[in-house]
Each structure stands twice: as C-alpha cells, then as structure tokens.
C-alpha cells in the first residue's frame, strides 16, 4: 500500500520534470534554429550581393548542408530543413515530419500565424526516447526569386542544373516554405 501511495505521489513530479525538460529542449531547439537560419541567411545574402539569385542558388547548394552539420555538431543533435516540396532530395521529410508539415498547412488555413507553427514530441525509437521538434519556415519576398511561380530563365536553368528533381517552386508570399527540424536523443 505504501508503494502505491509513493508511486501516486511521485508520478505527478515525474510528469512535471519531463514537461520542464521538454520545455528546455524546445528553448534550446529555437536557439539552434536561430543560429542555423542566421548563418544560412548570411551566406545567401553574400551570394546575392556577389552574383544575384543564381549565385545564391549555388551557395545554398554547397553551404546549407555544411552549416546544418556544423550547428548539429556544436549542439549535439541533428538540425535540418525539410518541406512537402523539396528542392534537394536529401531534405525529403520522414513520415513524422510529413505529418507535422501537413498539420502546419491545415493550421495555417485555419488562421494560425505562421510564426506560431511549431510542434514537439518525445517518441520512442528503438526503445530509446527521442525528442523531435519542428518550426515552420515562411516564404518571404526574397524567397520568391528562386521559389516563386515566375522565375527568370537563368534561375530556372541553374535550378535544373543543380536540382533536376526540384519540386520547390510555385510558392507565394506567406506560404509555408518548409520547416526546420530537430532530432535529439533523450538521456
């Protein structure tokens, strides 16, 4: 009987500790995303300044994965980008990510602000808890140069050269371009 009472008393404490831990992982994830996004944005802006959108496409092709790996290594977990319409097939969403992206689209249509589209969950993967987090990426004006529905011929040519399976065009201002995604083991 004493064991049951002790378990009943400790269970809410355990749940509170887990919730606090998840909130901490969410905060850390947001910081990592901000770091990754800022570094990638800086590289893209440098490319735009030196050679316009076609140079930015080349920069994104060569630098994005390196920046993601660098930030992932610094933080000790995996950070990446994904989308329902990928440009780089290496960024194809897994089943969990695709489900979250579809939910983001549904919530956006229901009037949720894109800046508020985020989701986290702790899953069991091979009997090991894993924290997953995603935050939507809005399509901004500058994105439309390479992701919009009216692309300059030079941009279309560069995209076909670097990304022959490209699906990431036809976006409009305010669409969900994709999402940052984080995967982290829970100790």
Q: Which bin fits the share of residues in helices?
A: 55-70%
CATH arch. level architecture: 2-Layer Sandwich
Helix-strand topology string: HEHEEHHE
CATH fold-type name? Beta-Lactamase
Main sheet?
4 strands, antiparallel
Strand order of the largest sheet: 1-4-3-2
Mean pLDDT: 89
Q: Count up the domains.
A: 1
Shape: globular
Q: Tell me the distance between the termini.
A: 31 Å
Q: Count the helices. How many?
A: 4
Per DSSP E runs of 2 or more residues, the count of β-strands stands at 4
Quaternary state of the chains: single chain
> How big a fraction of the residues is strand?
15-25%
Decide which structural class fits the backbone: alpha+beta
CATH class: Alpha Beta
Radius of gyration: 20 Å
- Stretches where pLDDT is under 50 for at least 5 consecutive residues are 6-17
